[in-house]
Amino acid sequence: MAYQAFYRVYRPQSFSEMTGQVHVKQTLQNALLYNKTTHAYLFSGPRGTGKTSAAKIFAKALNCERAPVAEPCNECSSCLSIMEGSNTDVIEFDAASNSRVEEMREIIEKVRFSPANSRFKIYIIDEVHMLSNSAFNALLKTLEEPPEHVVFILATTEPHKLPLTIISRCQRFDFKSHTQADIVLRMVEVLNDAKIPYNEQVLKIIAQAAAGGMRDALSLLDQVVSFSGDEMSVEDALLVTGSISQDMFYDIAEALLAKDIGQALTLLEQLVRDGKDPVRLVEDFITFFRDLLLIQTAPDLHDMLELASHESRFEELAKRFEPATLYQWIEIMTKTQQEMRFSNHTKIYMETALLKMVQADAPVQTSTAAAAAPELEAKVAVLEQLVRDMQQQLKNGSGASSTPAPAEQKKRQRVQSGFKIPTGRIQEVLKNATKPDIQAIKTNWAAVMGQLQKSHSALLNEAEPVAASSDAFVLKFKYDIHCQMASENQTFATAFSQLLEQYTGKAYTPVYVPEAGWLKIREEFIKNSGLKAGNEDKQADAEEENPFSQEGAATEEDPFIAEAERLFGKDFVEIHED
Predict the structure, then answer these.
(1) Which NCBIfam families would you find in this protein's record (predicted)?
(2) How many CA atoms does the CB half-sphere of 553 hold within 13 Å?
(3) Per-residue pLDDT tens for 418-428?
(4) More confident residue, 124 or 491
């Protein structure tokens, strides 16, 4: 017979063989014993935690010839046929490769037929979150009220992708990640059964790399056994799993403690050349510093060490650290891990993190620098006095002299002239502007900002929509640089337009304009709009909305003001009396 991987040979065949998941096993076994099984179950949790195995064991127990039983006998014809995969009444369905509504309809059509040889017809749908919306809708009614002889077992690693209408019709069981101790214990059972010698430190390395998944652990164990031959070694396990040796952790930690950044960066470069992933390195360093902190604060809890082994060198290293330093290093590594997710240059982030750790508690030599450069201190004093004088002028209401202001304004205009304002496009929007369109955009503005990426939403922090027609809107920016960056960023424009269309139901094309240019265009448009006798109706409508000023005195509405408020909204029109 062809060789089979460990995770297939040693798949649990009864609830007692399952590792962990006590809350799941006990609930299912009690339901089997007292005939309180329901028609639909949802098994959710990380990969390799026993969801499909539990579904098959539960199916065997339901159809076991000795039922009701808490454990399948694995001896009767029904149990044996399910184990072999030849039972026609237990149907395994892979939703990842059969996600269309047509496949789901085929299942639904066969649900009404009675089982051929068993008590129940059981459908195990794996990776159910991959089904399309149409397939979910087709399954919905059948899942709620199936025939008495049918049981659905849905398995998924991403339950948040399932419609709530599906989840509410199922009895849900959340599978938890396995602890390292559970994984090591299971690997010991497998190796003892296979009569293969093992090293406990090797098993710890494999369990750490498996990240809570039993299937991953047994697959890695299979690789290490195949690679090592007669006897497994720590070096073989480190090579296969991509982990790094404990001695390397010691060397880098000691280099950082001695503030020898050259040695630390050299060791990091060596690890990267050996094929180690910087993202994985950051995660391992966080775990190593956590172990140092744990053994330092609670020496008796050495069984809780995840990465390091309990030895004298590790304890001596832990005594050399201050707890505050370890806390700070863990925080630096955690932030680096988050930043790495958005970059392809992960090695640079790792090197920067090491530099931060070395310089974290370095004293700032401000006094020495000031003593070495007295002329710099004198310049700072002059600047501080200048700032105080300007603040006093502003307080007294007197601005700077009239000569430099125009010069500064002209210089600023020259600098900002890189962005070409689409005046004609803005005027076209103003001619067709409507209040419902601008209100629709403003109403959904916060929701759209919340869905954008942080880098994109940062461009809109000082921006606001000021006018809108049925197919476009004017977006005013406080700073010219943000306006230019937004207009040149095609990715931002696409994502922004799609989100806005999703929330408003209409496709609006944004037209970008700096604040200074907007004020000028708006003023010219109002003056040149040519309000004639035909605008009395618009003026009357504006007067109905606000016939009085804030002081309570009746005022006669200016036709220019009425037209401006119609186009831009009252919140964006300010009236200054000459």
Answers:
(1) dnaX_nterm, PRK05563.1
(2) 3
(3) 577 888 888 88
(4) 124
Which is it for strands 472-477 and 171-174: parallel, antiparallel or unpaired?
A: unpaired
Query: Please, is 148 exposed, middle or buried when counting C-beta atoms within 10 Å of its C-beta (0-12, 13-18, 19+)?
Result: exposed
d(CA 422, CA 515): 13
pLDDT at 80: 92
Distance CA 565, CA 545 (A): 11
399's tokens: 């601005």
pLDDT the model gives residue 123: 92
Q: Return the minimum-mean-pLDDT range out of 30-44, 189-203, 451-465.
A: 451-465
Domain at 420-527, CATH homologous superfamily: DnaA, N-terminal domain (3.30.300.180)
Q: How far apart, in whole angstroms, are the C-alpha atoms of residue 15 and residue 73?
A: 11
Q: How do beta strands 472-477 and 463-468 pair?
A: antiparallel
SS3 of residue 464 by DSSP: strand
CATH number of 246-359: 1.20.272.10
Is 286 within 8 Å of 253 (Cβ atoms)? no
Q: Is residue 187 classed exposed, middle or buried when 0-12, 13-18 and 19+ CB atoms within 10 A define those classes?
A: buried
**Residue 386 is inside which H or E element, if any?**
helix 374-396
Domain covering 180-241: architecture = Orthogonal Bundle (1.10)
DSSP secondary structure of 215-251: HHHHHHHHHHHHHHTTS--HHHHHHHHT---HHHHHH
Q: Where are the domains positioned within the chain?
A: 6-174, 180-241, 246-359, 420-527
Alpha carbon of 56 to those of 12, 60, 153, 235: distances in Å? 9, 6, 9, 38
Q: What's the CA gap between 526 and 530, in Å, rounded?
A: 8
Residue 544 has pLDDT above 60, yes or no: no
The DSSP 8-state label assigned to residue 93 in this structure reads: E
Which residue matches tokens 């955009």?
441
CA 235 vs CA 82, 181, 201, 231: distances in Å = 41, 21, 11, 11
- Residue 570 to residues 340, 438, 517, 561, Cα–Cα distance (Å): 46, 12, 20, 9
Cβ pair 245, 277 in contact under 8 A:
no
Identity of the amino acid at 523: E
At residue 573, the pLDDT reads 67
**What is d(CA 507, CA 502) in angstroms, rounded to the nearest whole number?**
9
The contacts of residue 338 (CB under 8 Å, 6+ apart) are none
Of 331, 320, 255, 257, whose CA–CA distance to 290 is shortest?
331
Identify which has the larger pLDDT, 268 or 489. Answer: 268
Task: Report the alpha-carbon distance of residue 215 to residue 504 in Å, rounded.
Answer: 46
Fold of 6-174: Rossmann fold (3.40.50)
pLDDT surpassing 90 at residue 55: yes
pLDDT tens figures, 295-315:
888 877 777 777 776 777 888
pLDDT digits (tens, 9 = 90+) for 235-277: 888 888 877 777 888 888 888 888 888 888 998 888 888 888 8
Instruction: Answer whether 0.85 is exceeded by the pTM.
Output: no
Tokens of 303: 């069984």
